[in-house]
């Protein structure tokens, strides 16, 4: 096996010290060409730092990097790119105002005479790349018009366009639907056959086991396990990651479901190009019930939640909370009525990054601490402390900017902010996106506990395992319509087939 | 502005206490600059330290500080208000018109107002222009820069139309109508301190309270920090934006009143380029042009740095051309130091992370 997969890049005794913390401690890492090198670890374990070192974004403080047998120092990202190292960051680095083709060639535009951009050539290459990735994305559409999943594909196309020999993918599937993940895996397979060395970071362990050839586990900046993927199973990975095996999903706590607390009738949202993005959807949630809304990218799940949360003035339909019609057209009005949304994109929609943890937690419920005009900072801080404790958010100080927290803790702040408004229905859009396995388990436990306390939860996910394990009832959406309803314990195959009645149509939306 | 040397290339940032001291110093940089500027002129300019001179300087500063307070809220909310200088001019003309003529009802009678009524009407005029700015920005989705650039021209033109470009002279008022006290706004004192300075102090205290201790203030920061996030958290973004532009218009109206009263005349060109001084004071005081960050206290200190610099240089006999150059350099230096602080802060946050 080693002969088939020569070592392309090695790091020996790699150390990276940030002021006050050591992110990597004497790391020895071998990157094998023509194979998928999987890298796992909890958030803060040093995976991202290791990747940044390989991609030239950060430089080692100690140790050496060897590429094809000769020592190298990548002075910056473009230096690494010239030597054949490409990286797709977890956070997309794209320009929503430029077209897909322009994004792919940004910084390396194809030109005539060094001045005139050859649009036709760029579009042609971009179109070829999209075909290779099996995506029907027009290279001339502005990137901002694409869904996050499609944008991720563009990011991958961008790395491919640079003819990378080593390609680092940092959680590439976190925003992709099952169909898009399959496409990505096929592309990865093609690339490895061509001899490209892939470094693959993900929190989805079953995914790693499926496509990985070699695995490296990091914990607190130290490599705790590195071996060929043969014989590796989830307990092995987890025990190396967090020291002891743990269950990702909490046990179902059986409790009686209450009355219907929330009903949606006939909600529809016209699409920009005719037809409906959300097509006359009706559903209901009982108190204490967790309803999982499963569907592929573009099925209209997020849009449905956005309609419920008054984000689309053009949306039609009726909402009822505990039988009473919701007529409020403003977000604050709907929050007052007991609705709360945990948005899909924490950074863009969930948090005000430059504000402190305290200010973010209380942003939706400032009225509770206000008499007349006066905001009681004391009452506010007390409430914030209470929720930090209740949500078990790990912080050094309430006054630190929320951007200093890890993804999991940021998500807890978002949930804390929603819970502080005393909601009766919690809408959660991809609540476990981009957070590590430990934080995920905590979030799932929190959801269970909230449901047991009588909250109705409607959560959207594209993770099949998640929807099967967490939901009391599963609803499936495709093409803007509800296409299936299953009780807890439904077969995975049924749920998937309900989600893909016209697979091609969904993708070419 | 002289400020601590940025810690270039200090990879091993040393003991973190040293970093945090430096950070504190950088955070207080406007204040440090104020002390330095003050100390410099105290030695270099004769008569600078006299009480009379202090009063004159604070009177000058009060005008710019008032505008800068309104501007701070606008910038923190993620916008910009270029129209404040024109609103000052227009409001001064409205005040002058009301003092001189009242409102002619064209039936042989005219409505005359006392000083308080004039103040209220002028304030409403300023707020209304702010409301127009706000409506353009929120309902019609015009970029703040363009919307307020438009009102800058419209308001200035309206001020000129008021008098065909002439000055309203002799705004002494009429005791019969109770408007003879109009001149007191600009010339009156309380406890030996000019009324205009008191107005600035009251507005500053109110604004600082609003910014830190009311939901409206918190919402302004949230809108500037992340508009979408704020909207999804239930913040009424449109209402907050309307508020900040109306407040800015109100501050500009106060300045228009004070100037008309101080000069006892109103000239339609009053307030030209005032908007730039106000932006300068806010930025000098640490307000981030990208929104979400800024403090009223900082803005006041920023206004004083600019004001002391200007008056001190005049007293030293430095040519006004050089003053302009120096003011520009100070503003650039402030933003450069701000960038250094941001980098240092990011590094400190990184330290805090595992």
From TrEMBL, chain A:
InterPro entries: AAA+_ATPase, ABC_carbohydrate_import_ATPase, ABC_transporter-like_ATP-bd, ABC_transporter-like_CS, P-loop_NTPase. GO terms for molecular function: ATP binding; ATP hydrolysis activity. This is Sugar ABC transporter ATP-binding protein. Gene3D superfamilies: P-loop containing nucleotide triphosphate hydrolases. Pfam families: ABC_tran. The keyword Repeat applies. CDD domains: ABC_Carb_Monos_I, ABC_Carb_Monos_II. Residues 9-245, 262-504 form the ABC transporter domain. PROSITE patterns: ABC_TRANSPORTER_1, ABC_TRANSPORTER_2. Belongs to the ABC transporter superfamily. Keywords: ATP-binding, Cell membrane, Membrane, Nucleotide-binding, Repeat, Sugar transport, Translocase, Transport.
UniProtKB/TrEMBL annotation, chain B:
Coiled coil: none annotated. Its main location: membrane. GO terms for cellular component: plasma membrane. The chain crosses the membrane at residues 30-49, 61-80, 86-103, 115-136, 184-211, 242-260, 296-314. This is ABC transporter permease. Keywords: Cell inner membrane, Cell membrane, Membrane, Transmembrane, Transmembrane helix, Transport. It comes from Rhizobium straminoryzae. It is found in: Cell membrane.
